[in-house]
Amino acid sequence: MDTRHDFEKYLDRIYENHARQWAFRGKTAEAFRLWQRRTRRGLLRLLTMKNRERVPLRLCRKVQRDTEHYIREKVHYQTLPGVVVPAYLFIPKRVKLPVPAVLCPPGHGGGMNQVVDESPGIYKQYPLELVRRGMVALVPEHLGFGERAGEKGNDTRSNHAYLYLSLNLLGESQMGLMIWDLMRAVDVLQVLPEVRADRIGCYGLSLGGETTMLLSAVDTRIRAVCCSGFISSYKSSFLDQCHCGCGYSFALCRYLEHVDIASLIVPRPLAIESAVGDPIFPVATARKTYRQLRKLYALSGAQDRITQDVFEGGHEISGAIAYDWMERWLEG
Fold first, then answer.
1. What is the tally of structural domains in the chain?
2. Which of 43, 161, 241, 310 has the fewest beta carbons closer than 10 A?
3. pTM for this one?
4. What separation in angstroms does the CA of 284 have from each of 157, 161, 265, 288, 321?
5. Within a domain: residue 2?
6. Is residue 297 part of a domain?
7. Are 249 and 256 in contact, with CB atoms under 8 Å apart?
């Protein structure tokens, strides 16, 4: 008897019978707004946000590079007691400050240095493209990656896998901690004199797309959103093939799918980048999720505030629509 796939079928049954318990099933815009408020609170609970302590930022700034078109700074700020996050801050020149800003969370890889310095690469140095259009860009380091991963990634207590496993053991969510760090990054942007505090966007790829989606769902200070290489579904991605454990946030899919989490962004502007050749987040599912989201934007009278860039390519930034999208909605 071949029993190798029995448990896979069991997981499929769990999904079919128990997933998306908090999905919106109403018909009116008023019911949808009520659902958003209630579900946003529930998502914050799933991300174990209840006991987060809002400590002073203790922001430190140091100029690293002064170029013809922008200033690059290395900044540090505190997000939890004794926990300091490094980030790169890019400030455009030849513009009248303050200006809008875009938070650029990295994907699953080499961290903030890969995002800003790798060329060529999947990120295409997209924060610099935003800066060239007159926006401030902040690229923070995620917990367990890059400069927060221990020396050369060999320090086991700073190792990415150790962090999400130990946090799970302690009843915490690493994804929730990443989102908290990004919420504090928004706090940083709001206190910078170079930034218009009410004009902040978020744009990320892969894990950066996931954190962009989740941050924008729970933090309404994010005014415009571009989620690249992520929005599709848990069923077609994390439950279809093995990903890093940090993305398997406890019980999340039991209550919410990608479409449900992204629905919390409505009616704020949302651009979705989906590559035809992305092997991780299938474009067919991304198209379906986009169509579902369009209906909710229409229900909210915001049909013009959602778009999808389906492009030829792999798991990578596109920018074909996103740069103009950010400029349009953050400048307006």
1. 1
2. 241
3. 0.96
4. 39, 30, 22, 6, 19
5. no
6. yes
7. no
198, exposed or middle or buried, with CB in 10 Å at 0-12, 13-18, 19+? exposed
Query: What is the per-residue pLDDT across 150-195, written as a single tens digit (0 to 9) for each?
Result: 655 456 777 788 888 999 999 999 999 999 999 999 999 999 999 9
- Domain range for residue 240? 20-331
- What is residue 149's predicted lDDT score, i.e. its pLDDT? 87
Tokens for 17, please give them: 């019978």
For residue 207, the Cα-to-chain-centroid distance in whole angstroms is: 7
Phi, psi of 102, rounded to the nearest 5 degrees: -125, 125
In a domain, residue 60? The reply is: yes
Residue 68 forms part of a structural domain: yes
Q: Looking at residue 280, which CATH number applies to its domain?
A: 3.40.50.1820
DSSP letters, 54-89, are ------EEEEEEE-SSEEEEEEEEEEETTEEEEEEE
Name residue 77's beta-bridge partners: 85
Tokens of 127: 């924060």
- ∠ CA 110-115-121 to the nearest 5 degrees? 90
In this predicted structure, the answer to whether residue 2 has a pLDDT above a threshold of 80 is no
pLDDT at residue 282 above 50? yes
Residue 308 CA to residue 130 CA, distance in Å, equals: 19
